[in-house]
Amino acid sequence: MTAHPATHPALHAADPELAALVDAEEQLQADTLRLIPSENYVSAAVLEATGTVLQNKYSEGYPGRRYYEGQQNIDLVETLAVERAKALFGVEHANVQPYSGSPANLAVYLAFASPGDTVLGMSLPMGGHLTHGWGVSATGTWFNGVQYGVRADTGRIDFDQVRDLALKERPKIIFCGGTAVPRTIDFAAFGAIAREVDAVLVADIAHIAGLVAGGAHPSPVPHADVVATTTHKTLRGPRGAMLMSRATHAKAIDKAVFPGLQGGPHNHTTAAIAVALREASAPSFREYAHAVVANAKALAEALLARGFDLVSGGTDNHLVLIDLTSKEVPGKVAAKALDRAGIVVNYNTVPFDPRKPFDPSGIRIGTPSLTSRGLGTADMPKVAEWIDRGVRAAGSADEEALATIRKEVADLMAAHPAPGLPLGA
């Protein structure tokens, strides 16, 4: 498949240099096996929505309460997205205006805490997120961030530690969820601890929102005061975010988002969120969500069979975290070699990692993108084989072996066109 100027005619005419880069990225996404768990392919409909004339409109405020006129259509677009979010996730309130996941989490702080208050979140090296109170983040600078981790023997969340810290520190907010958590999150256990210390429980489901929507992961809604999520990743929407909550917290959440942290929403993104939420309500999406998990489990088993060490011993969701210490290849070296082989991953710390974050021991992989392309469990042994060969080639600096893998990957990808990519259209 090759890109053609007819795909983006106005862009090619106005800015050939930038258009060439877009074409190159389209080709790269088509030819490579994308295993970064936070990435996915959106549909052509979602892409179209992000490029509509809704981009032209400013809309500070909320439907029916705007600071600009001419909102007849915009109010309906945002209301559509809100109602679809409420129906899909079974929540009482939804705000679809946050620009992305980190600003959405920051709005939670503004709504429920004051600078200096204590927040409890998962340690970043253990699998948490920067915005859960980690030191280098504004949330760890402005608030007293206290972190919990995982058990060394199981790689799973240490709930004894969570409860002990909660009772000792009495946090205003408790975050659950993260960026490298391969196991089912026990929202009920977190909810019980939060109630015991009168804390606001925030379930950050940015990674697993699509799995929750598709019934492939338990929902946090019965247990959490607030549910925060991005709208891309497993949800297959645009780069945006949502905050969902009980009705009692609606006013605080909305006020924190606007005017607390941002001005006018990105209406073209709101429209694309609405499209993605409609797609996620279809029976086919439920099949997709379960296929993501089935593929991840099959890939994990195939990697274990090849002698890889997996954090927690496997996965319950879309994500597999690989500790390469026994392979004697650092995560960064492996990730860059796999990239040259057409296999896109990210290097990542593993729990209790003795190496530095920018040169860690692990790599993080996931199955959302390959599942969107129609790959199934029967393909996972081949994917594991490529990862195995790629890691060994990284250790021996065998560029010829990496080039061979890249050709094999491209051949398989050609047989599984990616949703939304205009190549070959």
From TrEMBL:
Q: Which GO terms describe its molecular function?
A: glycine hydroxymethyltransferase activity; methyltransferase activity; protein homodimerization activity; pyridoxal phosphate binding
Serine hydroxymethyltransferase-like domain residues are 12-387
**Site positions (Plays an important role in substrate specificity):** 232
Localization in the cell? Cytoplasm
User: What does the UniProt keyword field contain?
Assistant: Amino-acid biosynthesis, Cytoplasm, Methyltransferase, One-carbon metabolism, Pyridoxal phosphate, Transferase
Cellular component GO terms, alphabetically? cytosol
**Which coenzyme or cofactor does it need?**
pyridoxal 5'-phosphate
Q: Which reaction does it catalyse?
A: (6R)-5,10-methylene-5,6,7,8-tetrahydrofolate + glycine + H2O = (6S)-5,6,7,8-tetrahydrofolate + L-serine
Is Cytoplasm given among the entry's keywords? yes
Q: Name one Pfam family in it.
A: SHMT
**GO biological process entries:** glycine biosynthetic process from serine; methylation; tetrahydrofolate interconversion
What does the subunit comment say?
Answer: Homodimer.
Q: Which NCBIfam families match?
A: PRK00011.1
Q: Which PANTHER family match?
A: SERINE HYDROXYMETHYLTRANSFERASE (PTHR11680)
What function does the entry list?
A: Catalyzes the reversible interconversion of serine and glycine with tetrahydrofolate (THF) serving as the one-carbon carrier. This reaction serves as the major source of one-carbon groups required for the biosynthesis of purines, thymidylate, methionine, and other important biomolecules. Also exhibits THF-independent aldolase activity toward beta-hydroxyamino acids, producing glycine and aldehydes, via a retro-aldol mechanism. Thus, is able to catalyze the cleavage of L-allo-threonine.
Question: This chain belongs to which protein, by name?
Answer: Serine hydroxymethyltransferase
- Protein species of origin: Streptomyces noursei
